[in-house]
């Protein structure tokens, strides 16, 4: 019976992370709108941060528990899953359209964040100073993006507003959003605990590295909120919102999650991730921008190719 405990921990962790992510997004968006924050800022920051909350809590928990390989694998694996699996699956349901302006501006900032992240990882350890650099760069990106959207509203700014609308009904008044946010934080905390403990145990059972568990099982689990939100958006006919969610979430995964966690506990970069997975993440990011720019979005056929590529990537990690 004991051998099944890690799997129950993983299932319980995934359920709590998914529910916690939903609660924290709705609660945080409700509070932000009550405080008079514009929809552009809420979509640019709060929605993206809320959907990335599971990755942050799991990575922080893993780093503090001495499992830095899971923390790094979680973020890199989540970014690969977000592009190939989430956008691919969403496009299969309903093709994703994208304006070239949005791809160049928001996609360009995602690429900038990816290149910066890889550059800092080349030191072998993401130290506190590197984490501070990441957070400062993200703050600058947010500032200039908001200033541009306020002066010249366009497709990208409307997409950020759509991301807020896509959250759905948010709790009214002050008490309900606060309670929802607190419930979300508690669920994320306990869910992260269970997922990391279960993931480490499974890694030991099968003799695979913690980095591989982070890149696959943990990354997939923490990407569930983005997957759920993107599929719901597709069914509502707003598949373009999925693109905005992924671009914003990927940028936060790299700069806020690893940047913030490394301020608390510096993170060593596993050799496997340094030698291959970082470059796969970069290649996938560039692929998305090329497809988005030249094909004006992600078609069903491209979505199928993305999903198959993700399955192949996971298979290569598990069988290596």
UniProtKB/TrEMBL annotation:
Q: What is the lineage of its organism?
A: Bacteria, Pseudomonadati, Pseudomonadota, Alphaproteobacteria, Rhodospirillales
How is the protein disposed in the membrane? Multi-pass membrane protein
Q: What are the protein's UniProt keywords?
A: Membrane, Transmembrane, Transmembrane helix
Concerning Pfam families, the annotation shows:
Na_Ca_ex
Boundaries of each Sodium/calcium exchanger membrane region domain copy? Answer: 7-146, 178-316
Cell compartments where the protein resides: Membrane
Q: Give the matching PANTHER family.
A: INNER MEMBRANE PROTEIN YRBG (PTHR10846:SF8), SODIUM/POTASSIUM/CALCIUM EXCHANGER (PTHR10846)
Q: Which parts pass through the membrane? A: 6-25, 32-50, 70-93, 114-144, 178-200, 212-235, 247-269, 278-295, 301-319
Q: What NCBIfam families does the record point to?
A: calcium/sodium antiporter
Name of the featured protein: Conjugal transfer protein TraR
């Amino acid at each position: 019976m004991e051998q099944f405990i890690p799997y129950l921990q993983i299932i319980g962790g995934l359920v709590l992370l998914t529910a916690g992510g939903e609660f924290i997004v709705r609660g945080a968006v409700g509070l932000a709108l009550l405080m008079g924050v514009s929809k552009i800022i809420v979509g640019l920051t709060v929605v993206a941060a809320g959907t990335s909350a599971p990755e942050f809590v799991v990575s922080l928990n893993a780093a503090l528990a001495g499992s830095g390989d899971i923390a790094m694998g979680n973020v890199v694996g989540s970014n690969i899953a977000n592009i190939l699996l989430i956008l691919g699956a969403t496009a299969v349901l309903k093709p994703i359209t994208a304006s070239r302006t949005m791809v160049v501006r928001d996609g360009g900032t995602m690429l900038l964040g990816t290149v910066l992240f890889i550059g800092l990882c080349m030191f072998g350890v993401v130290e506190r100073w590197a984490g501070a650099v990441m957070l400062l760069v993200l703050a600058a990106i947010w500032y200039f993006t908001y200033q541009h959207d306020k002066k010249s509203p366009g497709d990208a700014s409307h997409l950020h507003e759509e991301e807020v609308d896509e959250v759905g009904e948010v709790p009214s008044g002050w008490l309900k959003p606060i309670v929802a946010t607190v419930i979300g934080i508690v669920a994320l905390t306990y869910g992260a605990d269970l997922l990391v403990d279960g993931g480490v145990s499974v890694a030991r059972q099968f003799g695979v590295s913690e980095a591989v568990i982070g890149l696959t099982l943990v990354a997939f689990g923490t990407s569930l909120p983005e997957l759920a939100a993107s599929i719901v958006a597709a069914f509502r006919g707003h598949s373009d919102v999925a693109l905005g969610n992924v671009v914003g979430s990927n940028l936060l995964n790299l700069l806020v999650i690893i940047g913030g966690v490394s301020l608390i506990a510096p993170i060593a970069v596993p050799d496997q991730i340094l030698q291959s997975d970082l470059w796969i993440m970069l290649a996938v990011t560039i692929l998305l921008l090329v497809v988005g720019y030249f094909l004006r979005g992600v078609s069903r056929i491209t979505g199928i190719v993305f999903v198959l590529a993700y399955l192949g990537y996971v298979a290569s990690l598990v069988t290596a």
